[in-house]
């Protein structure tokens, strides 16, 4: 925080230093010109300061005019009507300031004010006009560049948000394969076992509603208890299709249940386990899901006893489930979440998800 | 019913789906289920053992996919595939004029599919196991198949003159006639030998052997006149490629 404040201050100070430097350079040219025309050194410096200081101070006003009166998209005449008098006023004020300083200087050093000749005054007025015109121009150029940069930054931020929303959408929906296969199983049950079909249809409705409500609210987080129930309903339906080929264990701390998690953080991992470890084997398989909260972190794990997968296999998988989840976590937790997977030597596949337990107080 | 019964095998790993299939097939008494399999490997073994004339194969079976079972079958048989959501497989089924049922399907749609098979069995034609080998084997198509009423017409690739997109259908203009296949042009293009077939436009594939002549259409594009008189304007990119080829 302290560093960023100092940086911000430094960023603001740099243009001011540049501005002062430019004027100093300009003033030294004056000194050189005066000195070369035989004016004593000290007096040359005083005259240069008198000529430069008022313009330098009022120049800050010129530079900021662009901010006050931004370049209009239409009706440029309105701007001209404001700018021309402003320019004249600033040039006149600068010239008056110069005269005042010259007079003051003469009065202080010789006891009587000295006034420059009329042509010199006119010449200084012209120079001051040009100076303020240039400064106003620079102000507009600066302001436009700044506005452009801000617009680009906003667009980039919007891109990030949009990508995040797309990621969200991609992962927070049920796989069509699952929905269609489930409907197929239920279609057959309608006559053979109407009670079972009814229960399963209710479950399917719950699943679709969860997905729908997550989409509609755009919620980045839900309490783990909701995701947990979602996974349970999902597994109930998979059991209708897979029967006793599917064996499941779900274990969780009560304390873990209130932790906010991204919706669809757990379900795709469980679905992956079913697709790769259970559905691919006629004998079926076992899926273990666990949730544990400790030391400010939530630990989720999904493990199966299937054939496992290599790093290359995961990268090549068209489902990209794990990779998408990883990107989503990166967007939501900015490095504070961790997704790890391994194929242990004794077989199977294990995914571990670790996230902070203090995200999003606004979670309902 | 006086006609002979046909022996069938069911391969479906999900118990409810298997039961449904068995249940629905009672509506077609001419089909006699002689074997049921829960994975691809046993489906293939049971098929080779019982040699059923009709197979219901789910695409996603454990151990060995339904597509693989069909390809490895050593004897001619009619096959009906079942699948929930396999776009690649469905495109291949269309190209091979193969029978398939997309899940969820119920009694009526199964009955319709069974009826199609019954009619097919009463005709002579290329059995579906042969069409499977053409359309499901990776690599470029030697021939494709189109439905015309109840008949299935084999179309050797070289007799295809051009293919035009019609929404998500492909209209195949061949020596045998014009046929509509329910595949996208892109899905079809992916299966055609690029040495012979070029997608010259978003909505057109042409057989280069059928080109009569090329002439400039405007600054950047070429107009292709085919031997049958059709003129197709190639896209800019395709025109550049064709110029290179013609050189």
**What is the number of E strands of chain A?**
7
Structural class by sheet pairing and helices of chain A? alpha+beta
Please give the number of β-strands of chain B: 15
Largest interface: pair, residues per side: A-B, 21 and 21 residues
Specify the overall morphology of chain B.
elongated
User: Could you describe the largest sheet of chain B, including whether it forms a barrel?
Assistant: 5 strands, parallel
**Radius of gyration of chain B, taken over Cα atoms and rounded to an integer in Å:** 21 Å
The residue fraction in helices of chain A comes out at: 55-70%
Question: Strands across the major sheet of chain A, in which order?
Answer: 2-4-5-7-6
The overall average pLDDT of chain B, rounded, is: 90
Residue-averaged pLDDT of chain A: 85
What integer value in Å does the Rg of chain A equal?
Answer: 37 Å
Order of helices and strands of chain B: EHEHEHEHEHHEEEEEHEEEEEH
Strand content of chain B: 25-35%
What is the count of DSSP helices of chain B, taking H or I runs of 4+ residues?
8
How much beta of chain A, percentage-wise?
Answer: 5-15%
Structural account:
The complex is a heterodimer of chains A (364) and B (247). The longest helix of chain A has 54 residues, at 118-171. In chain A, the strands form 2 sheets. In chain A, strands 2-4-5-7-6 form a 5-stranded mixed sheet. Chain A has 364 residues and is α+β, with helices and mostly antiparallel strands. Chain A is 67% helix and 12% strand. Chain B is α/β, with parallel strands linked by helices and 247 residues long. Helix content of chain B is 32%, strand content 33%. Chain B contains 8 helices and 15 strands. Chain B has helices spanning 15-25, 40-50, 66-72, 87-95, 107-121, 128-136, 185-189, 236-246; strands at residues 6-11, 31-37, 54-58, 78-83, 99-102, 143-148, 151-156, 160-166, 169-174, 177-181, 197-201, 204-207, 211-216, 222-226, 231-233. A 5-stranded parallel sheet of chain B has the order 2-1-3-4-5, with helices on both faces. In chain B, a hairpin with a 4-residue loop joins β14 (222-226) and β15 (231-233). In chain B, α1 crosses α5 (107-121). The radius of gyration of chain B is 21 Å and the shape is elongated. At the A-B interface, α5 and α7 of A face α1 of B.
């Amino acid at each position: 925080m302290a560093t960023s404040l100092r940086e911000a201050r430094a960023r603001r100070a740099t243009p001011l230093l540049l501005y002062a430097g430019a004027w100093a350079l300009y003033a030294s040219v004056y000194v050189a010109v005066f000195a070369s025309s035989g004016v004593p050194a000290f007096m040359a410096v005083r005259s240069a300061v008198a000529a430069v200081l008022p313009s330098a101070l009022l120049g800050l006003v010129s530079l900021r005019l662009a901010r006050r009166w931004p370049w209009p998209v239409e009706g440029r005449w309105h701007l001209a009507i404001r700018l021309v008098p402003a320019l004249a006023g600033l040039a006149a004020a600068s010239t008056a300031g110069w005269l005042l300083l010259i007079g003051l200087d003469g009065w202080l050093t010789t006891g009587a004010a000295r006034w420059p000749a009329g042509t010199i005054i006119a010449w200084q007025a012209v120079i001051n006009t040009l100076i303020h015109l240039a400064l106003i121009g620079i102000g507009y150029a600066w302001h436009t560049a700044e506005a452009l940069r801000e617009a680009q930054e906003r667009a980039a931020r919007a891109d990030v948000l949009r990508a995040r929303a797309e990621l969200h959408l991609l992962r927070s929906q049920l796989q069509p394969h699952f929905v269609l296969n489930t409907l197929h199983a239920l279609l057959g049950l309608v006559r053979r076992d109407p009670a079972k079909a009814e229960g399963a249809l209710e479950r399917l409705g719950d699943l679709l509603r969860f997905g729908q409500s997550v989409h509609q609210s755009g919620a980045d987080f839900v309490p783990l208890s909701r995701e947990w129930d979602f996974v349970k309903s999902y597994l109930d339906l998979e059991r209708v299709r897979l029967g006793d080929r599917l064996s499941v264990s779900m274990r969780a701390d009560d304390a873990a249940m209130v932790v906010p998690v991204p919706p669809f953080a757990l379900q795709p991992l469980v679905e992956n386990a079913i697709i790769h470890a259970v559905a691919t084997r006629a004998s079926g398989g076992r899926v273990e899901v666990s949730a544990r909260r400790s030391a400010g972190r939530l630990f989720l794990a999904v493990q199966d006893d299937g054939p496992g997968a290599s790093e290359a296999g995961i990268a090549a998988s068209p489902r990209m489930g794990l990779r998408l989840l990883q990107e989503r976590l990166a967007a939501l937790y900015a490095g504070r979440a961790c997704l790890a997977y391994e194929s242990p030597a004794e077989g199977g596949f294990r995914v571990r998800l670790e996230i902070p337990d203090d995200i999003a107080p606004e979670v309902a | 019913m006086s006609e002979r019964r046909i022996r069938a095998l069911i391969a479906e790993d999900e118990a409810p789906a298997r039961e449904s299939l068995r249940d629905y097939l009672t509506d077609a008494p001419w089909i006699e289920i002689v074997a049921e399999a829960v994975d691809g490997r046993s489906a293939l073994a049971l098929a080779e053992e019982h040699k059923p004339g009709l197979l219901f194969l789910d695409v996603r079976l454990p151990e060995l996919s339904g597509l693989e079972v069909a390809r490895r079958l050593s004897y001619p048989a009619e096959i009906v595939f079942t699948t929930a959501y396999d776009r690649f497989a469905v495109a291949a089924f269309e190209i091979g004029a193969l029978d398939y049922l997309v899940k969820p399907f119920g009694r009526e749609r199964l009955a319709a599919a069974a009826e199609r098979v019954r009619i097919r069995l009463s005709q002579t034609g290329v059995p579906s196991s042969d069409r499977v080998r053409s359309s499901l084997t990776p690599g470029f198509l030697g021939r494709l198949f189109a439905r015309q009423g109840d008949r299935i017409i084999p179309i050797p690739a070289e007799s295809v003159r051009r293919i035009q997109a019609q929404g998500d259908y492909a209209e195949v203009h061949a020596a045998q006639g014009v046929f509509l296949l329910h595949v996208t042009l892109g899905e079809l293009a992916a299966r055609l030998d690029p040495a012979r077939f070029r997608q010259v436009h978003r909505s057109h594939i042409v057989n280069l052997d059928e080109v009569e002549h090329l002439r400039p259409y405007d600054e950047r594009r070429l107009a292709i006149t085919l031997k049958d008189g059709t003129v197709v304007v190639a896209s800019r990119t395709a025109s550049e490629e064709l110029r290179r080829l013609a050189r």
